[in-house]
Write a structure and sequence with these properties.
The chain is an alpha/beta fold. Helices cover 52% and strands 12% of the residues. The radius of gyration is 27 Å and the shape is elongated.
């Protein structure tokens, strides 16, 4: 009991000495208060400088589809897509790897939208199958909080993949669109025709931005066929 009282008295004396010191030297209290805030402000300022220098360094980035992109490994392709997003003013980071939950690059644009990208590099001109779109649709919003979901490839997509992406609102960037983005310098927002106003992505109400004329024609033909079926008179009594 005596030891407890003695410890309490020591703590009380120490606290009183600290209060007297701060009251007698008020500038120490101000410094103690401002130092953490200053550190945070400095870190945020440095982060902004790094982002700006990255964007400046990549401002004129152009990647030739045949000479550059086709020769990349899948991992380096992910880094290249990340750099293209940074070039276009998107704060992006490569996250691909084991257990990446169908996301290789995640970014945030100036409007605060979270952009999740799945990259599929091919050396044989292969087509990306619908199962990739299923995976992205299942994780982009729930696991990564995506407002915009994208699958990009230097190849192409199967018809089933394109149709399902159109249904769930996932943007597809195929070889032709990648050439516009990487080689010709078209900004991602312009390429996908993203609205300047942030809108949450809905897996059921979204619409695919077509990048292949043949897909647009196929979609128009399918809609015309459905209209003709609705107008056909019933044969039932």
């Amino acid at each position: 009991m005596v030891a407890v009282l003695f410890t309490a008295l020591l703590l009380f004396d120490a606290l009183r000495a600290l209060i007297e010191l701060l009251l007698g030297h008020w500038y120490l209290a101000v410094a103690a208060t401002l130092t953490p805030a200053g550190l945070v402000a400095g870190w945020l300022r440095w982060k902004a400088i790094v982002r700006r220098r990255q964007a400046e360094r990549l401002a004129h980035l152009r990647l030739d589809l045949v000479q550059d992109i086709d020769k990349l490994s899948p991992t380096v392709f992910e880094y290249a897509i990340c750099d293209l997003m940074i070039r276009d003013g998107i704060e992006a980071v490569r996250v691909g790897g084991a257990d990446d939950k169908a996301a290789d690059v995640i970014g945030r644009d100036r409007n605060g939208r979270v952009i999740v990208v799945q990259c599929k590099h091919t050396l044989t001109g292969a087509k990306v199958a619908a199962k990739v779109i299923y995976q992205v649709n299942g994780t982009a919003q729930h696991a990564h909080g995506a407002d915009v979901a994208i699958v990009v490839t230097n190849g192409s997509f199967t018809r089933n993949a394109a149709e399902y992406a159109a249904k769930v609102g996932i943007h597809l960037i195929d070889r032709d669109a990648l050439r516009d983005w990487a080689q010709r310098g078209v900004a991602l927002h312009e390429l996908l025709k993203l609205s300047p106003v942030r809108r949450g992505w809905s897996g059921q109400r979204g619409r695919l931005r077509w990048h292949r004329r043949s897909w647009r024609m196929a979609g128009a033909a399918d809609r015309a066929r459905k209209r003709s079926l609705r107008r056909r008179p019933s044969t039932h009594g």
